[in-house]
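pinging the channel bc i need a second pair of eyes. not urgent but kinda urgent?? the chain im working w is below, pasted from the shared doc
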Amino acid sequence: MPSQEPPHRRAPRPSGARRTPGAARADRAGRPRPAPRPGQAPPRSARPLRLGNPRPRLRLVSLGLTLVMLAFVVRLLQVQAVDAAAYAAKAEKNRYLSHKLAAERGEITDRSGIALATSVDAYDITADPKMFTPQESKVPDAPEQAAALLAPILGKDPDELVRTLKAPPSPRYAVLARKQTPQVWNQIRGLKRLLAKKAREDAAGGGPGVSVLAGVLSEKSSRRVYPNGSLGAGILGYVNTEGRGAGGLEAMLDRELAGRDGSITYAHSGGRRVPTAGARETPAVPGSDIELTIDRDIQWAAQKAIAEQVAASRADRGYVVVQNVRTGEILAMANAPGFDPNDLSRADSAAMGNAALQDAFEPGSTAKVMSMAAVLEEGVATPSTHVVVPNRLHRGDRLFKDDVDHPTWYLTLNGVLAKSSNIGTILATGQLGRNQAEANRVLHAYLRKFGIGSPTGLGYPGETSGILAHPRSWNTSQQYTIPFGQGLSVNAVQAASVYSTIGNGGVRVAPTLVRGTRGPDGRFAPAPAPDRTRVVSEKTAETLAAMLESVVDDREGTGTRAAIPGYRVAGKTGTANRVDPRLGRYKGYTASFAGFAPADDPRITVYCAIQNPTRGSYFGGQICGPVHKKVMEFALKTLHIAPTGARPPRMPVTFTPGS
């Protein structure tokens, strides 16, 4: 068996011995290198490469990345989970705009449905002030540039527009101009398009591409217009810049007319609405239409007649009231001078009210009809009762006279009214009681029943109730002046209502201005029926009507210039001393005329008063009688009221002493 050598085994390295890097290595030629001599250092190039441990560095980098990622994760959780709602709200606030949707204001029409006040399309020019900041607009003077472009179009001061854009009440919303016409907005929109086109071209060429009007917006609104200009302006009133009623019926009926505003919220970008982002909208509810008792044509005739006479007399002002005797409806209420509610900038503030309801004045002799009503109703006299009227009458501490000096007049009670005798009225009303104090109380009660000293019932803003003191407060003079219309005050509607009460058989029907309302659903709701009050008997009213005819029809009467051919007219003149409201004392006169027609079947009452006429006559019969005639004649024809054809009674005015 062949002998086997044990396998070759490397001899173990002695403990502690280090292997020489050059040992047992060959050079590049393959020849073995000689081992270094003992004590000789190995060559430099042969030293071993010692690398640092990378693990600490890796741990540090990993920790840093972990902290950064953790910060991102925490921030992400805060934004998307913890504070998600708050950040979403901020994003919504910056992305979405909200504004009001103005409700369309209801129309005011006359009794035939003809518009007296209506609304047309308009725009509120608004802006997003944030888009005019240097950061957003990329222009340091964007507000100034925008104001320079907009001011000529809006008719605004450029400095005012700059202040609005730089210091707005809200950081994202400012109103530059309200109630602008569609033409104005179209002009601004065209300018915006032109600037936007230039901005795109500039951006394509590497420029900033800025449009300084990008933040100018609009809100659809409406503007109040009055198609008939100044016609009925005293009744209608006007609206303010916010579109709310600020005077007259516009203020009185603002809740019904205004409707209920809506709102809209929508996304925008660069000043433009984003149509695909959706919107939240609450629709506006339009206001109700108001139908008045006014007849536009009669209103025109009354306004024209009183304006002409006020101008001719160089008077401070005047008013005419036309009323339906049977229903109490006001058919016209005209004031002169007036104003145009379409252009309040040119209006005289003193003429912007409704003087026919807001002026309190002493009525003068037109009030004698109430004194005569009390005398007849109490049965202390009849139309034919004899009244001896001296030229002067001493009562209390005063000496009373009539408008003209005269010898002793021998008048019937009818004649006292026809010739408008102050002295005769004092003598007649003195019979109402056993003494003057009792007579005062009886007369006061009748005046109150006729509506003197009480609101008319119209509820009109600024309406005066007039002045009627309690009889205990009447001084010596008032006891004798109140019977002939001095020492108390009324407004023109109250004065007209007195004559309508007589014409309506002694029943007072509260005056009305509104026939009803028509809501957004198209349904018409009539106004409540007016209050009706019996003041005097029908017999007394008929007797008074016949006596009032003598004023117009008889040659002795003071109101002959109010006669209308073919019609029987009952009326009464008035000429009173006037209290000047600026001086607080008597200065000038109040001329007036009141009456109704046809006298034997009354349908229409017309009352006219002119304050402080300074040219020509100041007597009521002379300057107000013709106005009454013009307006009454027009109203009778407009309403197709034919003459009755009956002949007047022609009651006696005078008597022969001893007969």
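so The longest strand covers residues 115-127. and Residues 1-5, 7-11, 14-25 have pLDDT under 50 and may be disordered. — does that match what u expected or am i reading it wrong
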